[in-house]
Write a structure and sequence with these properties.
- The protein is of the alpha/beta class and about 200 residues long.
- It has a single domain, classed as Maf protein, CATH 3.90.950.10.
- About 40% of the residues lie in helices and about 25% in strands.
- The protein contains eight helices and seven strands, in the order E-H-E-H-H-E-E-H-E-E-H-H-E-H-H.
- Strands 1, 2, 3, 4, 5, 6 and 7 form a seven-stranded mixed β-sheet that branches.
- Strand 5 and strand 6 form a beta hairpin.
- Helix 4 packs across helix 5.
Length: about 200
Amino acid sequence: MLNKIILASKSKVRKDILDKNNVDSIVEHSNVDEDIVKESLIKEKATPEIISKNLAELKANKVSSRRIDQIVLGADSVIDLEGKLISKPENRDEAMTILRKLNGKVHHLISSVCISKNGNMIWNHTDKAKLTMKNFSENELKNYLAKISDETLYAYNVYQVEGEGKNLFSKIEGDENTIMGLPVDKIKEYLKNYE
C-alpha cells in the first residue's frame, strides 16, 4: 500500500483526518483561486456536485504538475441547498446569512476527492451527506454563532458536526468524515490497491 501522499489543501481538518487514519501526508497548497472557478462554473449552470469535483481535480492537478511521479490528493466540499451552491463564509455576517438560509431545511454536504499524478487525475470520488437543520429563532442562531471560534467557523462551513454544530440538526444521514471534508475510507481503499 502506498502511504506517502501530498495533500493539496490548506485544511487542518483534512490533514488531521489523514493522520488519524495513518495515511502519511505532507501539505502543499495549490493556491487555486476557488472564487473565480466557482463563478465561472455557476455561469455555466454547473451543479454544486460538478463544482466540488472540478475544484478537487484542479487543486490535485495543479500540485501534481510540479511534483513529478508523486501522488497528490485534492479535496473540496460544498453545501448544496436546493440545487444552489453555498460557499464557506468569509466573515460572521456571511455565516449568519448562511445559517438563516439553512434554518429548518434539508441540505446536502458534498465532498469530492481527486488523486492526481504528473498533472492528471488518476482517480476521484464524491460522497454526499444529507443534513436536516432544526428550526431556530434569530436569537438562537446568534447564540450558536457566539459560541463558535473563528477557526471553527471558517474551517467547517459554519458548523462543526462533531462538536457544537451537531446540536443544529434533527437528522444527519451520511459519513462524518465526508461532512468534515474527506471521505477517507474510499481514499484508503484506493491507496491500498495502488501500485
